[in-house]
């Protein structure tokens, strides 16, 4: 029977063929594919959370660089919105599914049983870690090549004016670029317990800029953020 490390080497080699990138440092890819649940079961293995941190920054830089150069007359606010729309969990999961990264992850037994190979957060985090691993192994240009191969069509869709979906993230990015504070507050609840409608307001600084309603607080916050972006003239 093959040892654990031998099985991991075979798994890594198969995944390299999928992504068409041959790592000089195989350990980087091993770490990128290792979830904390696996590392906790096998104490001698590192896991991918530190790489996720770096991958998020590399992804943001590549997308910023691309849209900055392709849309030379677009103002800062619009660039910020497009970047926020692209650099998100949804986009990362699209990459993850195209390369079937869930199949190659090293997960703990409990995580595997509970569906970890298809869990959105795990797939997105592992994809960020993979981006960081490619960056550390091959440099910025290799990471850029990988990211744009999978995301260029998505970026161009947003550049062509498609609807921005993650309104809370977009509003956060816009507010941060203006050095302002952002806060949400529940201002109303209507209806019976089984069919409540929640009403949230969002304030930028001390000014209420958006009101939203939804079947839960999270949905109401998104609608409030969308309303605020319209008031600020960031979306139509």
Automatic annotation (TrEMBL):
Keywords from the UniProt entry: Cytoplasm, Endonuclease, Hydrolase, Magnesium, Metal-binding, mRNA processing, Nuclease, RNA-binding, rRNA processing, rRNA-binding, tRNA processing
InterPro entries in the cross-refs: dsRBD_dom, RNase_III, RNase_III_dom, RNase_III_sf
Signal peptide from the UniProt entry: none
Residue ranges annotated for the RNase III domain, each copy included: 12-139
UniProt cofactor(s): Mg(2+)
Active site location: 56, 128
Residues annotated to bind Mg(2+): 52, 125, 128
SUPFAM superfamilies linked to this entry: dsRNA-binding domain-like, RNase III domain-like
Record field: catalytic activity: Endonucleolytic cleavage to 5'-phosphomonoester
Enzyme kind, highest EC tier: hydrolase
Domain DRBM as annotated: residue spans: 166-234
Assigned EC number: 3.1.26.3
Subcellular location: Cytoplasm
GO molecular function: ribonuclease III activity
Known function: Digests double-stranded RNA. Involved in the processing of primary rRNA transcript to yield the immediate precursors to the large and small rRNAs (23S and 16S). Processes some mRNAs, and tRNAs when they are encoded in the rRNA operon. Processes pre-crRNA and tracrRNA of type II CRISPR loci if present in the organism.
Family to which this protein belongs: Belongs to the ribonuclease III family.
Self-association and partners: Homodimer.
UniProt-recorded name of the protein: Ribonuclease 3
Organism name: Peptostreptococcus canis
Gene designation: rnc
